[in-house]
Amino acid sequence: MRTPYWLRAITAFLVVCGLYLPFTSSAGPKYEIKFGTLAPEGSNWIKIMRRMDRDLKKATSGQVGFRIYAGGVQGDEPEMIRKMYIGQLQSAGFTGNGLGEILPEIRVLELPFVYNSKDEVDHITEVFYDRFDQRFREQGFVLLGWTEVGYVYFFSKEPIASIDDLQGMKIWTWESDPLARALFDELGLNPVPLPVTEVLTSLQTGMIDAVYCAPYAALGLQWFTRINYITAQPITNATGAVLMTVEKYNEIPEEYRDDLHTIIRDGLLDLTQHTRQDNQDAIEEMQSKGIVISNIDDITPFREASLKVQQTLTGQLYDQELLDAVKAELERYRAEKAETE
Fold it and tell me: Are strands 91-95 and 229-231 parallel, antiparallel or unpaired?
């Protein structure tokens, strides 16, 4: 049976806003983790998340598990963060935006035009896992695992072959995303801040004529019905993660913590692979419906602008040492890979 349109739209909205983390729970375990998520019941990803909860309970003989608050009943990301600070929630899934509310330097992982492949994304997140986990712990949280929203592209009514093409467009943007704001400023673009719920109508009326998002979101939210082109080159890779409060983590007996980390990290890696396939399938489906892939003739000016953005945000979101460490690791990884090919 085909998934109803309304469910696909809600699911895609959550790709833009956050993570698919629709855990379910049966009888409450002794060490119950109250978990908040924007994701609705019934999404395609629920099988993975149910498996994670089920495997955790099995591995701990039913001692550790989740009580799940799905569909945003615990509020948006800032509200869930507030509830974690006061103990009403102990864990939640976040996008880069939400993670940045707690630890601004995490946004270094989402700098535009940095990654050349998903292998590079996976390598950097793995190499810097312990570092960010430690930094989150200093803020009162434990990093349980990474996942991602995926590559983010420009979608537009007219083809985008250069910065000049973009500068003539009215582009939707999140109201509070410092990365997007810095990039748009550097490129001299004309952003139009809007809630996600108003984007489709604004595309219909001409208030905006371009958006940026993951392909699965553009498909499920039906934004693609009001645009004609998608850029071949992505802007960035949008990350995400699951956090738990240190206070709750310390309540869980040490004998169960390895199982907690292993099951959640492995499950989120599986979730990431599904996300990537869903995004690729979305591009193919949109192409079959007439969307044309628009190639940027020269990516160099975009990369140059991204370098300026990196420096603009240094001292605001992250320090120079962290930026240098990420870039140096990328260079080392690329050189090593080139030698083996």
Answer: unpaired
